[in-house]
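Structure first, sequence second, as always.
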């Protein structure tokens, strides 16, 4: 981490203050440049620069690459000077800097959270920066050009683009970004040039249809779906090297290019969500149609199954329970479709489309022979886990794709249409932090669910079963995992309509991908338990969950608070080896969450004290709110997300 404070700084600041009586330049600017110079290891290329004091805007010594206006530094251009090291942590003092260009050097580490706050042009291209895009950039209201291309940046973009009204050029090319384009792209009303070439972005690009782009490069990513017509009109459009959906776009997709207002409820403006909803509806319609045609409503009670998606080695984590029809899934209740209205006519349109289509959008109908081949004939060496009525296998394809296949016990099904109901319910839920159902197999005697394989297993394994090979999760990563999981629940609770109660939030259902981003599994598998407290992981269930009908959205919030508590303490939520009074983690530690000394003792020793104390106590505050016994008093998941965002914010500024 580059953020550790060098001891030199205090001294540097002191000296600069002492010099302020004679120097022309604003002292905070001088101090920031001093720290920057030191963090770059005082390169000789930077003539005039000093590690302490100096007067960059004065008449005497010219500092290379620095421009001033009166006593303030306004431009820093160190492009292509062969510099290395880091940028220091004090750039946020440079309040008058509008151009900041350190492109084509060899800076490394994470992009500092502290950047010149009023910058108009920010160019960090062609360095070795790693990590993600700091959230502080989302607050740069004057930003017009953001160039982060040709670095080693990774992870998903967060929804941080809603307050950048002037951004006209965004270049993220040649990095390792992944995941969907965030919905907040739709607010980039001035964006003209967008370069995402050679990353691993995936999902649809419908959100771009709302923008007035002139220059777009999407080459060599993993985008799917259709290219909106409006984009196709752009001459310079580059889309090669992506697995776009073939065939013509479904009707309704094309008209989405109407001038998008940012009004969320705008029916005509197509945003990603509306399209997501439509695509899902198409699929749904097809499936409902099929099941209506095929069966006659007389299925027995235990026709839905609960599957616990597990990651790698651990073979104990898969449990499966038969379940009754729950209010939030199944064809007999209104499906939980993201809350966007689709007119009947449009709906019929989709229905027409789906009748014509042979390839139902994105879910893959696998043949059992295909999955058999990919799993080495369901060989035991490929088995990832086992439950009472399913086994999970790792499927590998020649093209490098790896999938997790849940093979269900065929005897448990009364018929394929019931299975398709289950598929239905799960497939509707689409969010970057929800484990995605990508396919299924429905043949007589062969019922399987196919998910993306998450190579880093579950959070439970990471926290509680880690071996010598795995490094402990850093504080940053823990906050990120909490935030992503919170977003998944916010989606289920707030965006799906009717809301979906997860009912089984626990760390073994939080799967981690290669970048350690969380994917909540088991979504859409809500169900009734005969005995709730017994079925749900002990230690996670809220006090009100004494019977199935008592389960409410806020019960998920409680369970989520317990997951956060695991992240904070590194302890299991329930430990039967302990004396009875100490078995339940929540009961044991809740009283200590507001006491800062007790809190430090509570923090996971694996963190080795490497966390900002303020952020830790904010995190603990959120937990305390979530695990209150009165459900009414617990915050909503949206509030939790907001609170966690503040943790991210403060995490960085408190180093
Ligand atoms: C910085 O300097 C380089 C040449 O050294 C130039 O190409 C680039 O445009 C400058 N950046 C800004 C933001 O003015
Ligand atoms: C469904 O059941 C009804 C009577 O319960 C019967 O009239 C109808 O033909 C059945 N439909 C199919 C597709 O079997
Ligand atoms: C659906 O298709 C039928 C026949 O192909 C057509 O009569 C009907 O108008 C179509 N519905 C819509 C909404 O396009
Ligand atoms: C999926 O494919 C199988 C053949 O492999 C077929 O029997 C089944 O009807 C298909 N299911 C759907 C929903 O298209
Ligand atoms: C999923 O979680 C990660 C980690 O917090 C976050 O970066 C990403 O933006 C989230 N995805 C969505 C779609 O919110
Ligand atoms: C997560 O998985 C990736 C790919 O297998 C691996 O490179 C990485 O080291 C894993 N992360 C951790 C923290 O184990």
């Amino acid at each position: 981490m580059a953020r550790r404070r060098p001891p030199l700084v205090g001294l540097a600041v002191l000296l600069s203050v002492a010099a302020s009586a004679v120097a022309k330049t604003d002292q905070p600017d001088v101090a920031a440049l001093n720290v920057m110079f030191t963090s770059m290891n005082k390169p000789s290329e930077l003539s005039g620069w000093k590690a302490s004091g100096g007067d960059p805007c004065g008449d005497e010594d010219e500092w290379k690459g620095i421009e001033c206006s009166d006593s303030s530094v306004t431009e820093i251009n160190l492009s292509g000077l062969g510099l290395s090291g880091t940028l220091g942590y004090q750039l946020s003092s440079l309040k008058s800097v509008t151009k900041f260009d350190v492109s084509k050097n060899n800076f490394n580490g994470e992009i500092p959270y502290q950047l010149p706050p009023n910058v108009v042009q920010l160019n960090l291209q062609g360095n070795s920066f790693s990590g993600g895009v700091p959230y502080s950039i989302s607050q740069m209201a004057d930003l017009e050009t953001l160039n982060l291309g040709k670095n080693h940046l990774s992870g998903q973009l967060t929804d941080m683009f809603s307050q950048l009204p002037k951004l006209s050029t965004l270049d993220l090319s040649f990095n390792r970004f992944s995941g969907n384009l965030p919905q907040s792209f739709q607010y980039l009303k001035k964006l003209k040039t967008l370069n995402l070439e050679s990353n691993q972005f995936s999902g649809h690009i419908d959100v771009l249809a709302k923008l007035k782009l002139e220059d777009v490069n999407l080459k060599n990513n993993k985008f799917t779906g259709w290219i909106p017509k409006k984009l196709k009109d752009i001459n310079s459009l580059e889309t090669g090297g992506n697995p776009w959906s073939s065939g013509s776009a479904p009707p309704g997709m094309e008209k989405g290019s109407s001038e998008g207002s940012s009004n969320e409820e705008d029916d005509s403006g197509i945003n990603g969500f509306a399209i997501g909803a439509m695509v899902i509806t198409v699929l749904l319609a097809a499936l409902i149609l099929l099941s209506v045609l095929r069966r006659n409503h007389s299925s027995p009670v235990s026709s839905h199954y609960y599957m616990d998606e597990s990651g790698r080695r651990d073979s104990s984590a898969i449990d499966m329970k038969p379940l009754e029809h729950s209010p939030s899934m199944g064809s007999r209740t209104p499906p939980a479709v993201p809350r966007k209205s689709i007119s009947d006519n449009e709906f019929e349109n989709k229905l027409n489309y789906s009748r014509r289509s042979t390839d139902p959008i994105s879910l893959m109908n696998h043949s059992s022979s295909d999955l058999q081949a990919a799993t080495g004939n369901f060989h035991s060496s490929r088995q990832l886990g086992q439950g009472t009525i399913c086994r999970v296998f790792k499927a590998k394809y020649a093209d490098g794709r790896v999938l997790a296949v849940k093979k269900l016990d065929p005897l448990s099904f009364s018929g394929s249409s019931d299975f398709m109901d289950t598929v239905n319910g799960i497939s509707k839920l689409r969010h970057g932090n929800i484990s995605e159902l990508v396919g299924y197999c429905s043949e007589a005697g062969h019922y399987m669910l196919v998910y993306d394989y998450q190579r880093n297993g579950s959070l439970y394994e990471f926290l509680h079963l880690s071996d010598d090979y795995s490094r402990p999760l850093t504080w940053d990563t823990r906050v990120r995992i909490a935030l992503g999981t919170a977003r998944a629940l916010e989606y289920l609770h707030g965006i799906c309509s009717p809301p979906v109660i997860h009912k089984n939030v626990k760390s073994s259902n939080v799967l981690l991908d290669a970048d350690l981003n969380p994917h909540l599994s088991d979504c859409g598998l809500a169900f009734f338990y005969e005995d709730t407290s017994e079925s749900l992981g002990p230690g996670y269930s809220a006090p009100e969950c004494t019977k199935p009908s008592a389960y409410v959205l806020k019960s998920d919030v409680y369970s989520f608070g317990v997951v956060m508590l695991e992240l904070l303490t590194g302890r299991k939520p329930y430990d039967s080896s302990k004396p009875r009074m100490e078995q339940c983690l929540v009961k044991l530690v809740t009283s200590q969450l507001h006491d800062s000394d007790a809190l430090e003792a509570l923090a996971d020793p694996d963190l080795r004290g490497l966390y900002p104390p303020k952020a830790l106590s904010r995190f603990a505050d959120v937990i305390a709110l979530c695990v209150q016994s009165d459900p009414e008093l617990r915050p909503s998941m949206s509030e939790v997300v907001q609170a966690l965002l503040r943790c991210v914010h403060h995490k960085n500024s408190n180093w």
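Margin note: The CA atoms of residues 279 and 635 lie 32 Å apart.
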